[in-house]
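Hi R.,

Here's the chain you asked about this morning:
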Amino acid sequence: MSSFTKSKLKLARDSIQKKDWAGAKAAAGQVLEFEKENYNALVFLGLACLELGEVHEGEQAYKQAIILQPSNPLAHQGLSRLFLRTSNWPAYADSLKQLAELFAASGDAQRCAGAVQRLVELRRERGTRAELIAALSLMLPSSPVYATLEQLPAPEPTAPTASGVHEVQLAMADGLQVLQEVVDLSEREEEEQIKKEVEKRRTRLGAGTAEEIRRAVRREVGATSQLPHLYTELLNHPSTSDELRRDTERKLLRLKLGTLTALPKASSKSALREEVLDMAKGQVLLGIPDELAWLIWAEWRDVEGLEGYDWGLMRRFRAVFPQSGLGRVVKGYFKYMGIPLLEEEEEEEQGEEGEEEDGYDLLLESAEACPESIIAQRMLAEAQRLEEDWPGLVRTAEGGLALVQKHELETGQALPLVTKSLNTELATALVHLHPPKHHPRALRLLDQVLAQDPNSVPALMGRGYVLQTQGKWGESAILFSKVVGLEQAKRESAEGDEADATGSMEVVEIEAREERAWCWVRNGVGEKGEEGLREAVGLWDASPHPGIGRQQARAWWRLGRCLWENGQRYEEAYKAFIASLKRLPTFAPAFTSLGIYYSEVASPPDPQRASKCFQKAFELDARESGAARRLAEGFAEEGEWDLTEVVARRTIEGEGGLEKGETVASTAKRYLPQNAWAWKALGAVELQRRSFAPAIQAFQIALRADQADAASWLRLGEAYARSGRQVAAIKALNRAQELDPDNWVCAFLMAEVECEIGRFDAAITVFEELAEKRPEDAGVLNALAGAYLAYGRAQVDTGFLGRSEGSFWCALAVARKLIGGDSNFRRLGWKTLCDALYELAVCATFEHPDEAYEALRAVERLLQGSDVGKGVLGNLLGAVGLTKALGQGTDGLVALKLSLLGSEYRVALTQFDNTGLSSAWFDLAIGLRRLTSLLPVADDIEPYLKESLRCVKEAIRADPKDPSYWNALGVMSFEKSPRLAQHAFLSAIQIDNKDPLMWTNVGFLYLFHEDVELANQAFLRAQTLDPDQPLAWLGQAMLAAHNGDESDARALFEHAVVISAGSMLEASHVFGTRLLNDRDTLQSQTRTDRLFLAFSALDRYCRERPTSSTVLHLHGLICEQLGQTNLAERRVQEAIALLEKEYETSEDKAIERRYAVAHGNLGRLLLANGKYEEALQAFSTAVNLLSDEIDDTDREATTLRAQAALGTGLAHFLLNDLESALSTLEVAHQQVSESYPEVKGHITLTLAKVLWALGSEEARETAKSQLLECISADPHNLSAITALASIGSLTGDGDLLTAALAELDALPSFERVSVDPGGEVDFLLSTHHLANGDVQLAIAVAEEALAVQPGSLHARHNVARLLLMSGSPLTAREVLPRQGLPGDAQSRRLSALIDLALKERGELDVDEFVADGVNGNGEEVVKRIEPKEDARRAVMAAPWEASNWGSAILCSSA
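And here is the predicted structure, written out as tokens:
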């Protein structure tokens, strides 16, 4: 070191002493400039920078110094001080640990202890638990600094702070305290670590069960755990107390056990398992009261019998842990089995304890407290087997096997002997629990046991019992003989030949002898069996074993059965049965046998005593099926159905059909019954209660026992039918009919099912055949009448009103027979009769009026003498008979009135029957409501409405739970009382919220009162419940119309009519009216299709309600649109007749105007039908009904008068009265104001046509001038322009034609479309260009029209036709493509002609036909294309069009 360096270092040291930190820094810096790796200069620089606040530079200086001399503590101390000054606690802790190691290496115990103490204090104040453990571990023997710290002097008690490291000195003096603290902290750290990791992993997908996660975490934590080493150190520490040592051993045992259970593979567990066992063994030998150790030592033993567990060990366990669960189990088991609880010298104390409580009860109670103990489960299982608690034994054995499996999984130790023992117990329980229900499972277990031990007595006995149940008596006897041999050999080897064989014979051997003898008896070896049973009786009676009363009673009973069946020695058998009951008064089979004796053998028979015996037997044991069946039959004969059900259910429970917690549904899939009669009885009861699903399953179970039982198939079919499963019902009933063809009830039920699925013809045929065979059976007649009535209603719904009339008359005839028969069915007969009359009201006239008259007179005679016709109904039936007063002109109105009188009579008949009374009031209300729609308009209907409202309220009072009554109340109060209507509808919905009709009606109520949102919600709910409910669609249509959405409204009205098939009359009315109003906005084909739909629907309306003049008139106009002018004429005449009656009564001006309009329409129809004189009269009547002075603002009257004038003029013209025609039209032309140009234009056009028809030049010039004036007044009158152009074309007047066409061309295309939706102008233009030979111009006009109306089928046809005429069939096919070709006649005809032209020219597009499904190559496809097919379809679509026939002929000849 140079002098410069020394001087500067001295200067730096002096500056530091003077706290001249800047000078010290400068001096150290000068040294480092000269000598970069000077250790002292770096240390001085670090200290100076630290004091100057230049922490980073100071830290770098210290670290560089440490690198130069890592073993020199000076820089380490400076760096530690820096970290402390800057509160960098992690770095400070690391520096303290490094200092401790440096001082330990240098042997400086004092300074090493100081670093350790400061580190511990830091970790206690600011560190985590793991960091504190690491710090404290420096003072343990395993620490690298422990040897140095041991050199510290002993602590000075009088001056604890003198050394500065008193805490470390104390730890070195007695390290147990530190070790205990480290152990405690480590335990808490690992426990918290496991808990946090388990919680974190539980949220992961596929993490496994909670136990699997815990084991995995414990396994990972255990791999790095220091607790085993710490526990070992604690146990080896010389200062450890006995108490601490025991506690540590307990913890170590649990730690190793936890690690053992967490290991994944059994192969890796053996060594650790032996360590655990050794630890447990040591604690047991020393008598240490650690229950886990004792349980491990006892539970982990693999022994076959309980005696293998060492009773001495069990006594010690119970003495050490008297209040533990297993200790109490041991106590209960010992007391139950009679094993001394204590050693012999303490017998007196044992006797005192034995009197405390019953051993079996204590065992049951204590076993629940230790569900994880294999020993407890085995002890309880043995006790339950001896007590014959088979359900409990099954649960216990299954629980024990689950524990064994869990033990093997956790410890890797197999317990084959324990498993075998528990399997034997489980198999024994399954053999005796509701045999033979569980025998398949029992046999599998028995086979496993016998495979391990062929001489296992319990397994042999169990297999013998199973063979007994299967009826294999010989095989069973062989097994029992083997058991006898095994037990006898065991007994002889144990006792010797001189022992008393009877006294020492075990229970199992006597039982095997008895069972073998019983097998001989059942196998037909009577004498040998009787001898064996007598021997068994003697052995049982002489046996000293306690608790064998049941076995003694069973042996005597079997002996009695043997005497009864072999030789009919009834009296000896009777004595044996009595002896059986003397042995055990609660032995149920003996009571059953005594009951049979009293009922069948005793002279005289004693049925009362027999019944008591059967009841006693059934009370004692529900498995006594013989007694149960006799009891059930007796109760059924006495009509005690509730008792019958009780007996049936208890019998099923007794045979295991309905165990605790099970239902018929859960049992139905896996159960073969032993007492099918009980299931049949249960099914009948459930069927009566309308619980169809349980009834079905009960009958299914019964049929498993006997699939040829026709009665069960019959009731099963009935249950299926009532539950709505008609297909299954038909199959079941067909099976019943195959088994019993003569059973009329089966045919009856089959017919009822046929009715439900709509096959009324077949059902009626069956009912009629049954009625012929059983003419007095009111039930058959009622079903036949109901079938006819349902058939008629179905026919009405499908529109076959004529057929329905015949069905209703048949129902009426059968109902009359029913009324005259059994009084019990008379009310049903009246109900059917009234319903049939109500349905007949749909007929305006009857097909056979004479027969109808007689039938109605017969109904009247039935009503005569009854107290009907009071109040409002008094106006319907006077003193003279109704039908007689009206003559033979009977109609539906008469039938409805008779229905009302019949309903009133039903009210009197059902005064004391709320169900029938409510139905009668409801029918009366509905009938009165319908009457108001059939009465003439002149009649006052208000009394009928009030009476109908009163009647429906009476119906609700009688039965407030019927939603249809509330719904009817809502409908009846719809307009006058909206609050009541809303309450009624909501009440109906509350009762049945699945009925779409209720929701639809409440929707109409909201719509009527302008609540659009609620109405929409109600209609949507109805559509959700039933998408085919037409009323809901009608409501949506009205809602769309209310919102102004005419397009949707039109589509919705049409859909409502379609899905209702015309049965919803209101929808038909609205649809027809709207269709007539929209006649100018629809394409021709679409309009025609809808007209046909409206025609069909309104025709049905007219037949069902022939008194509606509005609908008759509307139907006439629809018929006119379809060209059915004759039918239209009749409909309008019928409407006129009704309007005339209405006007005569009310003299209403509105009816007068409707009357005039009807006459105007009638005149037009008469004119179309060639009835010109009658047409003149009709027009005259229409005009006369109008006032002479018509206000110009009355458009309807003006139009009507103009129409009458036009019709009158045309009629005169057609009658060749030209002058009258001209004068009429001229007067009409003058009368029409200029404010009605459209009306005036029609008159002008007709006048011009008439003038042109006169033929004179003057008249024709006048016609031209009239047309020109009309066009000048109304430039958009296309009809006049077209007529003028036609005149120019006919006369060759080119100027006139050019002027007319100029007017047409001047109109924009869109305007032409608005005033000429039919395309007549475009057709005229194209025709004109064709006449002039300009085909391309004609095509251009047609294409322009198609461009303006791309959806117009007429415009498309015109373009395709012109292209075809021009020789461009390919282009025509593009305009009218085959894909999506409409089905109308013109489209098909044009398509056929196009294909014909393409085929002749060889220009067919083969790919298009292949895409349509025509297979083959090009040539084959061309050959197979038949244009005549489209031509044939055109003819079928419109056979009245001659052009279609011509095209068909042309295509066929091609």
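One quick note: The CA atoms of residues 767 and 784 lie 5 Å apart.

Cheers,
M.
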